[in-house]
Amino acid sequence: MSFRRKLLVLATSLCFAVGVGAVSADAAQVTVKSGDSLWAIAQRNGTTVETIKQLNQLTSDRLQIGQVLQLPEVSTNQSVRPPQTEENVSRGMVDRAAAVLEYAKQFVGVRYRSGGESPSGFDCSGYVRYVFKNFGIDLVHTAAGQYKSGTVINRDELRPGDLVFFNTGGNGINHSGIYIGNNQFIHASSSRGVRVDSLSDSYWSKNYRGANRIL
């Protein structure tokens, strides 16, 4: 075999070896913006909430605007779920919120029970926890703890499915509910059980303390 022929064979072998052995991986980051949630970020980037939480060592779903999250590396030879477009993610969030609210409204009229977390009786945080647990979101059974989940949003950013929080007496957050749109929210009232009330009502308006997004 001629010297030139040997060089050609060697070059071909090296190219083949590089092509087989090399794995292209791209590490990505995302910066949390107003209204984001772990679920929405996961949908946009073709991954899962649990993957993002594990990668960033998150112990809750609480996010801060401006927070930088690491996303999983994607190799060229790795099969992954394709990212969703902003339009599809928005539509998915609307559909998911609608399903949450439809489920939540089934319990209107259920009596209040301190510490309750079932259709036989709910307290406020037990009701919120029960509803969202049906959709794979595990919240703690305290209003103050739920306030530490998700992403903080302004009142004028509220959309159906967001959590709303109040201080109805004492210190800190002690009441939670689910925003359903049109300035209304559904919650387990200590005096009247699961019901719909308005944020415009003077009592709820003066005791309103904030809102979070978890969908």
Textual characterization of the structure:
The protein is α+β, with helices and mostly antiparallel strands and 215 residues long. The chain has a domain at 99-213: endopeptidase domain like (from Nostoc punctiforme) (endopeptidase fold (from Nostoc punctiforme), Alpha-Beta Complex). 34% of the residues lie in helices and 24% in strands. The N and C termini lie far apart (67 Å). The strands form three sheets. It has a six-stranded antiparallel sheet with strand order 5-10-6-7-8-9. The protein has a two-stranded antiparallel sheet with strand order 1-2.
Keyphrases for this structure?
globular, single chain, 215 residues, endopeptidase fold (from Nostoc punctiforme), alpha+beta, six-stranded antiparallel beta sheet, two-stranded antiparallel sheet, 10 strands
Question: Can you describe this structure in just a few lines?
Answer:
The chain has 215 residues and is an alpha+beta fold. The protein is built from seven helices and ten strands. 34% of the residues lie in helices and 24% in strands.
Shape: globular
Number of strands: 10
List the secondary-structure elements in sequence, H or E.
Answer: HEHHEHEEHHEEEEEHE
Q: Give the CATH class of the domain at 99-213.
A: Alpha Beta
Poorly predicted regions are 6-25
CATH topology of the domain at 99-213: endopeptidase fold (from Nostoc punctiforme)
> How far is the first residue's CA from the last residue's CA?
67 Å
Quaternary organisation: single chain
GO molecular function: cysteine-type peptidase activity
Protein name: Glycoside hydrolase
GO biological process, one term: proteolysis
Domain LysM: 28-71
